[in-house]
Amino acid sequence: MNEILGYFLILIVGITLGMMGSGGSILTVPTLVYTLGIAPSDATTYSLFLIGMTSIFASYTKFKNKEIDFGLVLRFGLPSMVSIFLTRSFILPLIPEFIEIPFLGEISTDTLLMMLFSVVMVAAGWNMMRKKSDNEVVDELKKSNGSLGLILLAISIGFLSGILGAGGGFLIIPSLMIFAKVSLRKAIAASIVIVMLNSLIGFAGDYQQFSTLNFQILGFLLIFSVVGVFLGNYWGKKIQTQTLQRGFGYFVLALGFLLFFIEMNSVLN
């Protein structure tokens, strides 16, 4: 039953990526861990592969409609890709299996990873729920400091994506709108390509683990995710994206709180 739920949730990931261009990938690691029993550290590797490959299909429509600003993709994507590759290749291997936390004792890195993931899910859900009006976005654009802020955010998002194995689209889209001063539509199109590049580069950074991966499971998961993208592209023309994004935000927020309490309970007990 858990396995069926896992494949269904991966289908949802693909649908949200196809409809909104972001958000869904935040569910990938928790789905792999809690429904398919994959260790969190391995789940981040699986997640990067799935998100990267799925984003190839998700970006096709944007490419066909000439919506992708490749200059913008390069400006944000290059520092982000370097950051995620260095994080996966050199920083993650240095993290010990257990870490001593004041008042909580020795906690496994996998548990800490899932706790961090739950916090990011809460932040992502909150961001999706409180979708800003065009006037609010314009006000923020006037306050932004342009290229430097864009590069710093790209490096930070690459690092976070490398640690969590998530695409980071929910962070990339507002970053592009505020610091690159582009429309939501352009930000979504560029974000899908950046997520694709980040995820595949991050996956390549895990080359030492390739021999331990179950590519049969990855193949099945990829099929469900890609089917979800095509469904999302089709339904996205019929459903108001803003309404869907807000509703999905509530779901991610609630799930983030649930995962945090599950992991915290395992620590305290």
From TrEMBL:
Keywords: Cell membrane, Membrane, Transmembrane, Transmembrane helix. The keyword Transmembrane applies. It is a multi-pass membrane protein. InterPro entries: TM_pro_TauE-like, TSUP/Inactive_protease-like. It holds the Pfam family TauE. The chain crosses the membrane at residues 7-37, 43-60, 72-91, 111-129, 150-180, 186-205, 217-236, 248-268. Belongs to the 4-toluene sulfonate uptake permease (TSUP) (TC 2.A.102) family. This is Probable membrane transporter protein. The lineage of its organism: Bacteria, Pseudomonadati, Bacteroidota, Flavobacteriia, Flavobacteriales.
